[in-house]
Amino acid sequence: MECIVECLFLLFSLNGITGQSVPVKPTRLTHWEVTPQTVRLTWNAGDSEVIVQYRPKDDPGAEWIETRPKSEEFTVRRLQPFTVYQFRVVPVNVYGQGQASDIIEVRTGELGLFIDNNRNNMVKN
Question: Known Gene3D superfamilies for this protein (predicted)?
């Protein structure tokens, strides 16, 4: 009888029935500051750690570049000016990776311009 209880608990744990499972999909991935070489992102992933992934949209062979930020706000650096990038956030915990956020596309600024979505304006830099 003891084996049956332990085996059922193990089976339920592996299927996430005990409430322990991969994290849920992050929400509200947005950008709010764009320069020629940086994009600042924010999102909501609850208590989950995340992997920020990005790649140039127009490069068909481009693989996702990954970084692990420490908070729900991160500035991606060393981007190419006036290039469209795709961004997504993948939640991760001890049980694995959850579903990635929806992809957002952001064009980096032209050299000499800075876009601040908080103020809805362009500023020369």
Answer: Immunoglobulins
